[in-house]
Amino acid sequence: MALSRRFLILGTICLLYGTATAQSMLADAPKCAIDCLTELLSKKEYAEMGQEAMCSSKPFAKAMGVCLMVKCSMRQTMDFIKESSAACGIPPTNNTTSYRVNSTVVFAFALVFFALRIVTKFRLGLTWGIDDTLTTLSVLFIVIEVLYLTALVLVKAAILCFFLRIFPDHKFRIVVKCTMVFNALIWVGFFIFVFFQIQPFSLFWNGWQQKKGHLILTGFTNFTLPLAGINLLLDIWMLILPMTQLWGMGLKLKKKLGVISMFSVGILWILDGQYVHDGFIGDKSWDNVDDKRGEKGQ
């Protein structure tokens, strides 16, 4: 009796979605997903739902998601979501154009300012200081994503060293050195958390397949978001620091504003780095696209 009911429900699914689409979807769908569909469509509240209703019903999607998380592996769940989205006519998320435009524009700005800096160095015969050296070292870390924060810390340290080179005020230099210590403490705290939050460390790579993602993300909201907030505040603080010295310089207003604008270029970094959407979108493979867009700008 149960077997006959199962085939009846599967036949109903075929009728709801159209024969060709349903056959393709059911052929590729994992058995656990079919079991979830069978279980839900056997319930009174979902038994008479049509295709459009099933595709647009949030309660049905939520109930299906709960069942998939219990009965299916993460890979099976992702495969079924892909198939069912196609059956419902939901196009895959594609932010390729936006990603490329943003990356190209930010890279062009960065390239122009870098070229201006190099030309100025050679035309005025300026020497290379510790800020230039630290910036060079930070480039070495760009290929190692796990050391991304290290690169940010080095860049901030280079900027702070530059402040020490050009501003002689004693109190200001003390504030800058304290900022450097705080910047270093951010780096130390990050690495202590990353390397000791989960054991074995291999779960970082395969934990999602074993449904142990909660172990990997234990501190996401409690650590990563506060860390991003602290870095944003530190960026703003580092923009304010030189302004306190530049405003008191004995220059005409026009020249003073020109110098201040040169030190304010970093605002582009902050604006682009914070251009991150909420990560809860339909296609999880795109969740990190906006994060990467911010990283490229930085």
The figure for the number of domains is 2
- Major β-sheet annotation: none
Structural class: mainly alpha
> Oligomerization state of this entry?
single chain
Distance between the termini: 62 Å
Number of helices: 17
**Rg result:** 27 Å
Shape, per Cα inertia axes: elongated
- What is the averaged pLDDT score? 72
Proportion in helices: over 70%
Residues in β-strands, percent: under 5%
Number of DSSP E strands: 0
The SSE order reads: HHHHHHHHHHHHHHHHH
Low-pLDDT runs:
1-12, 14-23, 276-286, 290-298
Would you kindly provide a written description of the structure presented here, covering whatever features stand out?
The protein is mainly alpha-helical. The chain has two domains: 2-87, no CATH class; 96-297, no CATH class. 74% of the residues lie in helices and 0% in strands. The longest helix is centred in the middle third of the chain and has 29 residues, at 96-124.
Keywords summarizing the entry:
single chain, 298 residues, mainly alpha, 2 domains, 74% helix, disordered N terminus, disordered C terminus
